[in-house]
Each structure stands twice: as C-alpha cells, then as structure tokens.
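[job 0412] stage=fold_complex status=start
inputs:
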Amino acid sequence: MKKNITIKEIAKQAGTSVSTVSRVLNNNPSVSPAKRAKIQAIIDQNHFQPSMLARGMVSHKTNTLAVVVSDINNPYFTDLISQIEQNARPAGYTLLLINTMTAGTGQDASDVQVEIEAFKRIMEAKVDGVLILGGEIDKEVVAERYISALNTLNSKAPVVVIGQKVAGCDALFVERDQKRSVTLITQHLLALGHRQIGFVGGEPGVRITSQRLAAFKATMQTYSEIDESLIVLNNYYPQSGYDAMAQILATHKQLPEALVAINDRVAEGIFRCLADHGLQAPQDIAVGSCDNFPYGDFLIPRITTVDQHNEVLGRIALHYLFQLIDHKQLEQTETTHLPELIIRESCGAKLPKEGKQ
Amino acid sequence: MKKNITIKEIAKQAGTSVSTVSRVLNNNPSVSPAKRAKIQAIIDQNHFQPSMLARGMVSHKTNTLAVVVSDINNPYFTDLISQIEQNARPAGYTLLLINTMTAGTGQDASDVQVEIEAFKRIMEAKVDGVLILGGEIDKEVVAERYISALNTLNSKAPVVVIGQKVAGCDALFVERDQKRSVTLITQHLLALGHRQIGFVGGEPGVRITSQRLAAFKATMQTYSEIDESLIVLNNYYPQSGYDAMAQILATHKQLPEALVAINDRVAEGIFRCLADHGLQAPQDIAVGSCDNFPYGDFLIPRITTVDQHNEVLGRIALHYLFQLIDHKQLEQTETTHLPELIIRESCGAKLPKEGKQ
DNA sequence: AGTATTTTTGGTAACCTTACCAAATTTATA
DNA sequence: TATAAATTTGGTAAGGTTACCAAAAATACT
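[job 0412] stage=fold_complex status=done
writing structure:
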C-alpha cells in the first residue's frame, strides 16, 4: 500500500519543521511570507490534504454532523435536508446521513434496537453534533428508547431535534407548530362553508398524528359535530390516503364535504382514489393538507396545504446546534408562527381555470 | 470539559492491560472467557465506545462511505440512496452525504470549483470509498473538473460511479442502460401505433440527455420521420415538462400522438399542463417516461415508465466498492438488461378503469 | 517432574496532527 | 553597540487506538 503523504514529508521537502507546515495549513499568521509561499507551493504540488482523523484526535472536532431522518424517501424531509446542507456547508460541516426508516413501517422492537445501537455508535464516535428530523422520535416506544440511548451517551455531542418535544429527553427541540398548521387548513375549509369534514392519514398512537388530530378536532368543535366515521388513520404514505378514501366511499352513501389529509403524500393518494371513481377535488369534495412538499403545484388538483417553512426551521436548528457545539450561551431565535396557508386549488377557494372539461 | 472515557480507563478498572481490552473490543479469540466477561461488563457499565478517530488513525479505516448526489430532492436518487444505505449498514458502513446540486441548476464554473474543493477534501480525509450517483458528472464541464480532481487525489479511496462512463476517469462505472430504457418506452409507444412522437425534458449538452435523446431517435428512425419541433429540452424538473408541453400546445395546431418524457418528474409537469388545457393522457396524447420514481402509481394518469431496478444497481455498486476497498480481485456481477417497462395508464396500453368521466 | 507447546497477557511503537513552550532570529530602542 | 522586544521557527508531548513482539501462564507430552 502506497504510503500516505504526511505533514512530515512536506516539512522535509520544504526543509522546515512540521510545526511551521502546520501553521501554514491553519493560516496561523506567524509565518514569514517567503516561507509560507514556499511551503504552500510544496503542499499544492503534492496535493497534500491533512488527515482529518489526526486533526480530530487532537482538536476533538470532526466537522461532521449526523442527520437522523426517519424516511429519506419523504420529499418533505429531503427538502429539509437540503436546507440544512446549504447552511452546514459554508460553516465547514459535512452531513452524515442516518436513515432510520422507523416511521410507520411497523418495525418490531428488536429492529428498533438495532437501529439505536447503530445510532449510538455513530453519535459517539465521529460527529460534533446531531440533528434529528421528526418522525423516528414520534412512536412512543421508539421515543423512549431513543431518549434512554441519548441519555447514556458519553458523547458530549449536542442534539437538536426538529419535532415534538419529548419529556425527559436531554436535547434541544425546535418544534414545528403542528397545532397551527392543522388549525389553518381546517379553518380554511370551515371558512369556505364546509361543516362535514373528515381527517385522513397518520398512524394511530403516534404523537404527530395525535397532535394534528387533536388540533383538527379542537378547531372543528366550535362549528360542527365531529363525525368519527370520517376519521380514518393508517400511516403517512400515498397508499394510506388511497385506502382511506376508498373506505369512506365504500361506507358512505354520500361524499363528505371536505377532508383534511395529514400530509401531501396522503392527499396525493386521496386524489388518485377520487379519480378512480370519476371524482375530483374540489368539485366533488374539498381536500386540504399539511407540509407543502415540493410537488404540490403539479398535483391534479394543485394542492392547498400549509407550508412549514423548512428553510427557516433548518436554519434555526443549525443555529442552535452551532451554538451548542461552540459552548456558547444559547440565544433565542425567532421561531413563532411559521406555518403558512398555501391556497391552491384542492379546497376550491380559488376557482379552477376556465376551459376545463 | 468532561474527560472522555478511554480504553486505558477501562483497562485500569478491569485490572488488565489495554491490549486485552482492545482484543475484547475486536472479538479477538485469544482472551480467556472469564476475563472477557469481566471486561465486557465494565465496558457496558461505562457505556464505553472506542474512538473512531483513533481507530481510523491506526487501521486506516473510517467505515464511512461518501455518497455524492447531484440533487437530493430527486425522488429517484433518494430511492437509490435508501437502497444503498440498506446494503451499507449491515456491512458496517455509514454514509456521508454530499449534495452537489449541480444538475440543471445553471451553476457557474466558480461554484462548481467550490464544490469540487469540498468534495476533494471530504474524499481525501475521512472516507473509505466514494459512490457517485449520476448527475453531477454529466455536464461536460463539470465532469472534466471532477475527473481531474479524482485523478489528483492522494487518497486511495476507491470511487464507483453509477452513471455514464467518462473517458479518462480513474473510477469504476456501473452504467445504467440508458439506451435500453428509452428504447423500451419508445418501442412501446410505437407498438401502440403511434408515429408522431415527441421527446421532452433534459438539459441540452448534458450526456444523459444526449444519450437518451439519441436512443429515442435511433428507435424512431426505422418507423417514422422525426419531427424536430416536438423535441423540447430544458432540464429535469416538473416545471420543465410543464413549459415544454405549453410550448408544444402553443406552436402546434394539433397535439402530437405521443411524448417521451426524459423522466417521471418531467412527465408530471406534462400531465399538469395537459390538465390545465382540459386534456389528459392517454386519451388525448400518450405519454411515456423513464426512471419509475416512487409516486408513479399515484399520478393522474398512472405513469407508464421504465424501471431501472435501483435495488440491483445499488447492490452492484456497493459490491464493487467493497471489493475495491478490501483490495480483492474484482469479480464480475450480473449487470445486464436491468431496465424494465412498467405499463400503467399513461400510454393507453392498459385501458383506464371503467366509470371514469 | 521436566520440557515442549499452546494459550493468554502485557508493553510499546506507530498512526498524523496540533498545542505549547523554548529557542533562534529579526527588528526596534536606548 | 548593546539590550530589549517582537517575530519566526523548532522540538516534543498528547490524543486513543491497534499491531506486533515478548513475556507469562496454562496445558500437553515424554
């Protein structure tokens, strides 16, 4: 195996000491211009890159952040990840991706345990900080294990979670305003005159589902009776929306006036099911949703949903994480009321374009 | 700062030497069962994790793979990434994500240079191998720079690219069969009796576009004249498909019989544009595509496309990469003829369900 | 029992860099 | 010119682990 070129070798070639080469590498000002130039030339000429490993050993920094995401196939998360990456890169950080696939895949406890072991190993070993993106901390049983895992760590790598606060968990939480999100879309449907409104998607017993459903019910209560037969949970994928819609069609003589989908992917499944029955939103039923995933403007119909402002969320989370990493005093950032209603077609507020069949 | 617990500390507590603790950590058989149990107990009790950094220093391994992807928001890539992750994890590898965003975003050369510097630094420093997923090596100018970057590396980290072979590039390529993909979908449309077929999407001057377009033309040539006015390039996003379709509608009195979209996202844009004009595939025009991204079965219409079998692609790429990392003789894997036609609705081969409006 | 063999254990160099302190050199000041 | 101060350079420990060789202990063999 070809021997790696080291700082020692560079020093030898430049006829100087490793200390001085190290200073050039770290832009330490106390190097004479002439020597600096000479050394830099030799560095360039050899395409020398200092070993991150050795650097990390002495500085206790790896310039790597772990990003834990429950489902990398969810466009909502990839959007968030790319926001995070855009902010992390300029700060000199690289992202270590951990895809746990714990969201609504019906994993059993032992699978989860394996995940967590891997997660711990990674966190311990080679990252300066950890960013957890929702999901995997939702399912109660999983959350519990993650919390205990977090708390047993020797690692001082700080953890920031974008998601719902979990009691007893020693991490900083950047909470998405689930209540406001669902309230916004529900109010929108109510304002359009709908009263018989259902809620579709999400996994029973999972916190994000409970929270969104609770917000839905709370908003509805003042205006209308809640029809429990129009609340159909399942999971977060398009198929879930499809099946729920099919179930509602099969069990109800008449379509409800409106539906709130737990997210855009579920709504996509609803649209597909409606189409299979010759129906469409918003003409036959109004459908609103949450998350504003990247394809909302291309769905048929274009989806009316609630944007969570991922770019802000990502920036805030990283801001906190950097402060924690640098052991700075945590200063507050503006977090309030991010969710914003995006009105497109699927609720009928804006009429579909003329010329439609 | 709390001092990190080390192997030395464990050895002290166990009343043994660091060597023996290290042996326990690495499942070295030459440790007596009694001592092993005792040491393991102390390890568990202290939640001790050996430092990856120190390990890496001496073993020259980081158990980390860099995954370079041009656009993490592309569901096709995330699908591929999750396939890769599923295969890498059991082998003990973690993925370092590098999102270059060089696909069709019109970056200028200096941006690219920044990317490449970051890319080099990461590759050099802390990964055992590199996996490049298409895209970023497509654009000629980018490819050139990447190649020279790759070739100047001191790092012996092997590189495997899932994408088109680039001359002079010192990496192993797992090629997707672009020709066959496009040929399959084009032949399908031809077999359905269509002759006036257009090609939409992709970025001019980019290799994947050229290759797919060439395959389209080659397949068409035997059966039909090629109408250049029905070839509208742009990029790889839904908006691109939307705009292209709008352009075709604006410049042609009559709709063409069929369209081949460069990928499913572009097709999604086409569908949306058609809907805005009261039109739909396949009734008014047949639309076929490539890539089989994860939502194809929920689009309206369900898209007929070509699957690239990412799970196989990911497995093969990783298989090669592992062999290279372990300095094993490279043994061939089956790679042939992965692309497979997925017939759904958008070409009209399978009639849409009854009961549609 | 005494020796040869095998199994188990311990000590230490090496991996590559930075931090820190001391030494050498240059520049400024009396 | 001699001395003080500032700048630049060099030497070496430390960081946490594994690899390797030597030593010790346990076991087998004559």
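[job 0412] summary: Residues 4, 6-8, 18-19, 22-23, 25-26, 50-51, 53-59 of chain A lie near DNA strand C (CB under 10 Å from a C1').
[job 0412] exit 0
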